[in-house]
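Q: Hi! First time doing this. I have a protein sequence and I read that you can turn it into a structure. Is that right? Here it is:
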Amino acid sequence: MADRLFTKILVPVDFSPCSEEAFRIALSFAKLFQAEVLLLHVVDTKSLDALNRLGLALPSDAKKQKKQLHHQARLNARQLLAWDEAKEVTIRRLLADGCPFEEIARTARMEGVDLVVMGSYGGALGGVDKIFFGSTAEKVVRTAGCPVLTVPLPPKRSKVRMNKNT
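A: Yes, that's right. Below is the predicted 3D structure, encoded as C-alpha cells:
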C-alpha cells in the first residue's frame, strides 16, 4: 500500500529499559500505520573479541559464548513478544553478530526499512567510550539511509504526593 507512511519498522534492542521503551513506541507506530516490526538484537562480537584479548574470557570459548548470548537474546525477545501491545502487530525477530551500528544500518538497507526506532542510549556503554566514539544511535542516524527516531527513557513519575499546604 503506497498510501501508508511506514510499512516496515526496525527496532534494534539491547534489552535495556531504553530499548524497551523504543519497542513500545514502535508498536504504537506499527498499529497506527499497519506496519510490520523487525525486532533486531545484535550480539556485539567486538566486545567478545576484546574480552578474549584481555584474557577475561578464553578465545576457545568464543563459540560457546556466542551460543549462550544467542540463547539469552531469544529468551529476552520472547518476553517482549509476550507484551499485550505486541499481540496485534506482525513482528519478525532477527538476530545478528557484529558491530551493532553496522548491523543495524545494514539490516535497515537490506530489509527496505522505512523507519528505525531505537533507544537513545543502551545499557552497555557509557562515559568515555561515548565521548570518543559516539553512541550507537548517533552512528545509526548517520548511516541507516532512512528516518531514525531515537527514544529516551521516559521521566519517572514522582510517587511523592504534594502536601496540600505547600
